[in-house]
Amino acid sequence: MRIAVLNGPNLNLLGTREPAIYGRATLAEVERAARERADALGVELAWQQTNDEGRFVELVQGLAGHADGALVNAAAFTHTSMAIRDAWLAVRVPFVEVHLSNIFAREPERRRSLLADLAVGLVAGFGALGYQLGLEALIEHLRTHAA
Ligand code: DQA
């Protein structure tokens, strides 16, 4: 099973970026822990991060036929990007939305996700652990809903 992990803007700055909200783990550390979990669960992980909306759209478009599912932290694009929403509508690869922070307990403009209703489910508020929880939930979903 192949799982893509897509990370959006400013997540490359994890570790130093607003640590009180996002924690002290770097993106490389989050990736390492997710890879360990993926290995234990016997799935292949393709990890990406981009600060560019167009690139993010291309990454989503590229999933068709290449990934069984995706774990997605679209970061600020979550709240703004109709283009990324349209890409998911076109591609229809099952995904779990993940956020380090609980976006529903933050500023009003962060409480809306343009992706959440398209997702299998959403994990928010558990920091870096959310990636592992989301991965586990996604794999379980894919295994039990296999065509
Ligand atoms: C985030 C929440 C977003 O509102 C924010 O723009 C981010 C990170 C999170 O993981 O908590 O960059 O997606």
Labels describing this entry:
147 residues, alpha/beta, five-stranded parallel β-sheet, 5 strands, globular, binds 1,3,4-trihydroxy-5-OXO-cyclohexanecarboxylic acid
**What is the percent of helical residues?**
25-40%
Please give the count of helices: 6
Report the span from N to C terminus: 13 Å
Biggest sheet overview:
5 strands, parallel
Strand order of the largest sheet: 2-1-3-4-5
Principal-axes geometry comes out as globular
Number of strands: 5
Compose a concise summary of this entry.
The chain has 147 residues and is an alpha/beta fold. It has helices at 19-22, 27-41, 53-61, 77-80, 82-91, 129-144, and strands spanning 2-7, 44-49, 69-73, 95-99, 121-124. The chain is globular.
Could you explain how this protein is built, in words?
This protein is an alpha/beta fold and 147 residues long. The chain contains six helices and five strands; from the N terminus they run βααβαβααββα. Helix content is 39%, strand content 18%. It has a five-stranded parallel beta sheet, with helices on both faces. The radius of gyration is 14 Å and the shape is globular. The model has no long low-confidence stretch (mean pLDDT 97). Residues 10, 73, 75-76, 78, 99-101, 103, 110 line the site of 1,3,4-trihydroxy-5-OXO-cyclohexanecarboxylic acid (DQA).
